[in-house]
Amino acid sequence: MSPSPDVAVIGLGRVGLPLALAFADAGLSVIGVDNATEHLAAIRAGRMPFDEPGAQAVLDRVGGRLELSERAADAHRARHIVLTLGTPAMSHIEIDLRDIRSVLDDLLPHLHEGHAIHLRSTIAPGTTDFVAGYLAKHRGFAVGSDVFVAHVPERIAAGRFFEEISTLPCIVGGVGERSGEEAGALFAHLRAPIVQTTPVQAELAKIWTNILRYATFALPNLMMMDCEQYDANVFEVVDLINRDYPRGGMRLPGFTAGTCLRKDFAFSEERSNAPGMLLAVSRVNESVPLFLVQGLKRRLGALDGRKVAVLGLAFKAGTDDERDSLSHKLIRLLERELADVAVHDPHVTSPNQSLAEAVQDADAVLMATNHPEFCTPAALELIAQGARPGALVVDPWNCWGAAQVFAHVDEVQALAGGAPGAPAAAAPAGEPEAR
Ligand SMILES: NC(=O)c1ccc[n+]([C@@H]2O[C@H](COP(=O)([O-])OP(=O)(O)OC[C@H]3O[C@@H](n4cnc5c(N)ncnc54)[C@H](O)[C@@H]3O)[C@@H](O)[C@H]2O)c1
């Protein structure tokens, strides 16, 4: 245990733990803080509490350089304190800052000149200045010279942390004269290029990175629903838009949710100049499960007593993260139709069945998550063997290249064979993407 670790990371979740490990791997002594005791127990036992490619190997390697604590106040022993706490959105269309406020209150009596607080969480515009003002108000610090406050947003996608941490430009928005410099010096240990800006520009850059993705995927989702209305094929229309067109770029449909995309737009809606525009984007993405259930009913009739296999619980391909996944909404909607729902996901820890069990005698198989394991000829063959003859396959991701959102399993088999994510009968529309 170092008397004064180089850096403290408070909140060892999906963002904080990989970051703490990366700092330790870069040779820094780190104190990691989390108030979830089970979570800490797993890390103390040398076990990653969730899946993040490469993280277990780093944990094995750096164990000794990562001290752990349940108490936020213990973070004051490090000069640099990084906050990676959750920032949900309240139903009032407002950021929920309770975890950040509570940790700041724990730290306040222990802060002294030279401390630097780096906000890594996603925050609404103005939050970094609020934190600086909070320290000035309660402790009388001059922020930027006595103590330092910066926003250093995390833009890495879960599942790609160790691939992107040393390459993705690291945006730094510091308050006052020297906060940006202090934050830049800490994050330079991770070797990514540092881009200095103002706090509010850093905040805007992060939330609009996610808003861009959320809106980008809402367009093909809306178009998929439009296409059903006109009996058109969404994958062919995507291809018509993009093929050899220099200003194309329409993406493919698919469930778009998860803990970040589903809430970060609300941080813009707090003070929007076009209130409702992004809420409409959210409504589009949120209505895809209902669209798929209604599409099933149009083709199969009442779902009461029909077996529907849902493949995938994670919100993102290749991960075990189920937070805010639309799969759960889909399952609830199917259950409200009195369907017999079977679920399979090879990544998550929630109880579920094997693929063979889930699809056995199914009347319909619904691809909720585009996990790579599902998008293989072997998985399609298993579905064809196990499900009822002529079972409906619902694949908004175009996992098998059959380019049909709704099709019978034998049709999917006949049409499959294009590159995954690309219409079989047309030029590729785009790669299947994790959301
Ligand atoms: N998950 C992602 O892919 C991702 C990507 C980019 C940005 N973000 C943003 O990063 C932030 C963190 O996200 P996350 O997914 O890691 O959240 P998370 O819920 O996985 O992690 C937060 C951690 O903070 C801990 N915590 C809460 N209150 C605490 C307290 N008082 N003291 C100590 N620990 C406390 C929780 O136990 C939890 O382990 C959010 O603002 C999120 O929007 C997340």
From TrEMBL:
GO BP annotation list: polysaccharide biosynthetic process
Keyword terms, alphabetized: NAD, Oxidoreductase
Entry superkingdom: Bacteria
GO molecular function, one term: oxidoreductase activity, acting on the CH-CH group of donors, NAD or NADP as acceptor
Ranges of residues in domain UDP-glucose/GDP-mannose dehydrogenase C-terminal: 309-402
Protein family (similarity comment): Belongs to the UDP-glucose/GDP-mannose dehydrogenase family.
Protein name listed in UniProt: Nucleotide sugar dehydrogenase
